[in-house]
Amino acid sequence: MSDALSCPVTGATEPLPEYPLPRAAGCPLAPAPTAQALRAGKPITKVKIWNGSTPWLITRHADQRALLPDSRVSDDDLNPGFPYVNAHRAEIAPVTPRLITNTDAPEHTRLRRTVNGPFVVKRIEKMRAPIQKIVDDLIDEMLAGPNPTDLLKAFALPVPSLVIAELLGVPYDDHDFFQRSSSLVLDGSAAPEDARRASGELVAYLDNLIRQKTATPGKDVLSEMAGRVQAGEMTHAEAVSMGVAMLIAGHETTATMISLGTLALLQHPDQLALLRETDDPKVIANAVDEVLRYLTIVQTGVRRVAKDDIEIGDVVIRKGDGMIFDLHAANWDPEVFPEAERLDLTRPARIHQAFGYGPHQCLGQNLARLELQVVYGTLYRRIPTLRLDAAIEDLEFDHTGTTYGVHGMPVAW
Amino acid sequence: MSMRVELDVPKCVASGQCVMAAPDVFDQRDDDGVAILLEEHPGDELLDEVREAVAICPAAAIRLVDQ
Ligand code: HEM
Ligand code: SF4
């Protein structure tokens, strides 16, 4: 019963639901039924999280759009009442440097403008040819290798890692090291000590590379940040953390959109056929946005805290109240996306909130879209017989990470 | 009667969504991506694209006003 059309949309909304909310058994790609029920009945309501606190859960698309850009809604996790995702995040908050991910305007605006240059639409578009080459080469390798294989390891993880290497300006000879270490850091099944060692090696590597780029700059992101360090606009440590942040924020997310996106498309052969038969960039671009909407892989909710009292509808959110924005519920809101449970690559999907909304909306969204456009526009044409080599019931999904995902996806062709 | 585009530059978070939606009306500064208004009075044929830009701008920094 993996077709979302038959998935439940109701769940217990009393007593206080515990967040994150579980997905329904047999419905791995649909939002949690309780989130859907709350959106219909109690769109702004309290939920309980791991530390016993009771932030507001906001599930409607319109309410998220009203609140997320509001200057009273803060991303500064040092404010009392901030609804941390877990104990680890609560612990590290006081010792985490001020970054784009934990500041509000005007500081956020200033910081974000220092790292935004490489993500300007026209500059990202110049990466289309290099990304096409990365994707073509990986498909060549996959076709020459074992069949069946794990799509995650053979294709979905290497694509974003090689693209980020290209963006940052990692020399070609180091790509193997870079790809191996970053995959180890993210591989949930790797031994913790291996993951920790790989993470240490990556930080040391980026640290050193930024120093080299200071001496001999190129036209890449690390060189640009090295220049800003020299100009006194950011510190060396900030540049290193930004490099690591881009790697972490952009790797697993994009890989999951490739693996789960392929899974969703394989389950909807008519939609997959639309994609395989077109070379219209607009059709492919909209298909990417629709799959982003349908899957909405950031599953722990966007977290904020109120800096002042906020009246919305018949609710007053008090200063110091935590807020959680469930993006998947909003992206399946029938007021904005009729028959939201249908994957329909031709619907207008652009207004989805899979990248969040407001000033913190994903920094890498234009790059992620481009990668997915190249992948979705290439993979299924090059391998038209691609199929899942397992029962969907036997796949192991990651229900705990910030990003939803699957541990391994056997495919054959 | 024509429509005028208003861009609130201090609010802009340089996401480039307006450039993706309406490339004839918006551009971005090269160094930091802040939006630039190319066409304050876009022709009718561009209005749908501008409306899309208004809808997807994450900072709610764009307005299309009747005047
Ligand atoms: C399909 C892939 C991706 C998805 C679904 C995704 C999703 C998101 C979401 C929902 C947020 C908002 C968080 C919030 O409001 O608190 C975000 C922020 C962010 N993303 Fe992504 N992301 C993706 C790819 C990338 C890539 C490729 C990069 C970088 C190369 C990246 C870098 C970032 C950064 C730095 C932020 C923080 C922005 C800020 O707080 O101002 N992401 N992402
Ligand atoms: S969409 Fe909005 S925030 Fe993004 S660049 Fe345009 S005006 Fe700025």
UniProtKB/TrEMBL annotation, chain A:
<dbReference type="InterPro" id="IPR036396">
    <property type="entry name" value="Cyt_P450_sf"/>
</dbReference>
<keyword id="KW-0560">Oxidoreductase</keyword>
<comment type="similarity">
    <text>Belongs to the cytochrome P450 family.</text>
</comment>
<keyword id="KW-0408">Iron</keyword>
<keyword id="KW-0349">Heme</keyword>
<dbReference type="InterPro" id="IPR002397">
    <property type="entry name" value="Cyt_P450_B"/>
</dbReference>
<dbReference type="InterPro" id="IPR017972">
    <property type="entry name" value="Cyt_P450_CS"/>
</dbReference>
<keyword id="KW-0479">Metal-binding</keyword>
<protein>
    <submittedName>
        <fullName>Cytochrome P450</fullName>
    </submittedName>
</protein>
<dbReference type="InterPro" id="IPR001128">
    <property type="entry name" value="Cyt_P450"/>
</dbReference>
<dbReference type="Pfam" id="PF00067">
    <property type="entry name" value="p450"/>
</dbReference>
<keyword id="KW-0503">Monooxygenase</keyword>
